[in-house]
Specification:
Shape: elongated
Strand content: 5-15%
Oligomer: single chain
CATH superfamily: Winged helix-like DNA-binding domain superfamily/Winged helix DNA-binding domain
Number of strands: 2
CATH topology: Arc Repressor Mutant, subunit A
CATH architecture: Orthogonal Bundle
CATH class: Mainly Alpha
Number of domains: 1
Structural class: mainly alpha
Length: 145
């Protein structure tokens, strides 16, 4: 078979790859918007619950690691572990069910850093962690003819 017989199939696959990567980028951007909206809603619900004398326990519906991910995804500045704990509390997460809360926070931070979901960052001489906003959608490969 000649190369020309495969060329249309290859070109179609290249176009499909680029389109899929574009859609993935759009989905990820939409996900980030929704996560920020969820955090705003949680903060509102926690505040309103307190005003009405109710208790909101987000921990029943959101895992600990996911809650920490959401804290980082909505912050523009680095956070120290104690600030992560405080943000979880502000979001209504029940911290009393953990014997050593800070040990749990540090363990999750170490795992997220190992997976490169968060990175160490220093701002104004203060060390902390920040969400890794590196592009998540891969760039289309450069293919040579």
């Amino acid at each position: 078979m000649e190369d020309s017989e495969f060329r249309p199939t290859l070109e179609k696959a290249k176009a499909e790859l680029v389109a899929s990567q574009k859609r993935l980028g759009e989905f990820l951007a939409g996900q980030e918007v929704e996560e920020k909206n969820i955090v705003r809603l949680r903060e509102f619900i926690v505040t309103m619950s307190k005003l009405l004398g109710e208790e909101f326990d987000e921990g029943d519906t959101l895992g600990f690691t996911d809650a920490i991910r959401q804290v980082f995804k909505t912050q523009t500045t680095p956070l120290q572990p104690t600030q992560v704990r405080d943000k979880l509390r502000d979001l209504g997460y029940d911290l009393t069910k953990y014997g050593n809360m800070m040990a749990n926070v540090h363990a999750v931070l170490n795992r997220l850093e190992a997976k490169q979901e968060i990175i160490r960052s220093t701002v104004n001489g203060v060390n902390g962690f920040q969400w890794n906003h590196a592009p998540r959608a891969p760039k289309p490969p450069t293919l040579r003819k």
